[in-house]
Amino acid sequence: MKNSDLVTIANEYGSPVYVYDAEKIESQYKRLTNAFKDVKHLKINYAVKALSNISILKLFKKLGSGIDTVSIQEVQLGLAAGFSPEQIIYTPNGVSLDEIESAATLGVKINIDNLSILEQFGTKHPNTPVCIRINPHVMAGGNANISVGHIDSKFGISIHQIPHLLRIVENTKMNINGIHMHTGSDILDIDVFLYASEILFDTAKHFKNLEFIDFGSGFKVPYKTGDIETNIEELGKKLSAKFNTFCKSYGKDLTLAFEPGKFLVSESGHFLTKVNAVKQTTSTVFAQVDSGFNHLIRPMFYGSHHEIDNISNPKGRERFYSVVGYICETDTFGNNRRINEINEGDILRFKNAGAYCFSMASNYNSRFRPAEILWYNNKAHLIRKQETFDDIINNQVEVDLDNK
Ligand SMILES: Cc1ncc(COP(=O)(O)O)c(C=O)c1O
């Protein structure tokens, strides 16, 4: 996909618009499976929350992936995309027992991260296999909001609670089919996985009927030229060796599972916006685009970096700009960025816009969420229409305030 294709898409479909390159998704998927080729049974479960458009899910299905879901709605979306229940793992946190039971009724793999819920579920459904999410208490992740393995985290069952966990399993006679962890996002250091794997293997030894061990995700992708990323190839070599050794001692070839979101879709995404105004103040030149944190919240939420370039004037003289949105709070996408000269009407492209971008978009300021395009087989395919005013008003109910 060339920059000129992106400009054509912005002109044809309007802005703002999200564009995803299917080829990049495919190459990331293959890179990951190739890194773990030494493992007999590997399962990649794409984390739906990262980018949940049904056409993206269908693309993953075509690649042979399963999916990781965190809500009953994501489960339903996965089923609608054609995944069979066995290809879906459901890893909720803080949801009701009712919701977990609904997911179990649909036949998907259940992952529980709470002792109280585990006991209730096991007592009522001892024959439904359950995976357990362990919190190995390994501190990892790029930002406090995406580090979920630490001692104060709400996620997972603490390794310090294993004796309690074992009592529940024994009393309920439930069948534990998997052990899982997910310690955070943007993890640079593969030692985090290697160290945590020892904890998972130790935990796994307590259960005789395991089918898989799920190492979650959190792989870091590059956000700018020269940025560090998780060394997937080295991780593949080292973790596969450890896993194979463990399987030997366990006496069974288990499945090694991962559930990446960002690694698979982040770099495929391009968010295109139009410059509404260039505003020169005494200290700064602002480029004000037709979007805001209603469409792309990561810079404001996590301090995430998205490279921004001017794809409609790629040869213009470079100058410094602060790129901001049109929202009624401060919504700075990038401060003092060196960008080719920007004029009103230019198209600015935000990179790494595949993961946690559209899926976190909202209607704040009563704005429409943008269209989404999949670039597939050298053609642009509309995979979500831009919202209209009907989408804003449809579910609102007007009260007759004059009727006493
Ligand atoms: C349980 C679980 N699995 C997988 C993921 C995907 O993580 P990433 O996008 O860093 O690959 C997340 C992200 O929050 C998660 O919470």
UniProtKB/TrEMBL annotation:
Stretches assigned to the Orn/DAP/Arg decarboxylase 2 N-terminal domain: 23-266
Pfam families, alphabetized: Orn_Arg_deC_N, Orn_DAP_Arg_deC
Domain of life: Bacteria
Pathway in which this enzyme or protein is active: Amino-acid biosynthesis; L-lysine biosynthesis via DAP pathway; L-lysine from DL-2,6-diaminopimelate: step 1/1
InterPro entries noted in UniProt: Ala_racemase/Decarboxylase_C (IPR009006), DAP_deCOOHase_LysA (IPR002986), De-COase2_C (IPR022643), De-COase2_N (IPR022644), Orn/DAP/Arg_de-COase (IPR000183), PLP-binding_barrel (IPR029066)
Catalytic reaction equation(s): meso-2,6-diaminopimelate + H(+) = L-lysine + CO2
Any one GO MF annotation of this record: diaminopimelate decarboxylase activity
Record keywords: Amino-acid biosynthesis, Decarboxylase, Lyase, Lysine biosynthesis, Pyridoxal phosphate
Subunit structure and binding partners: Homodimer.
Similarity section: Belongs to the Orn/Lys/Arg decarboxylase class-II family. LysA subfamily.
Descriptive protein name: Diaminopimelate decarboxylase
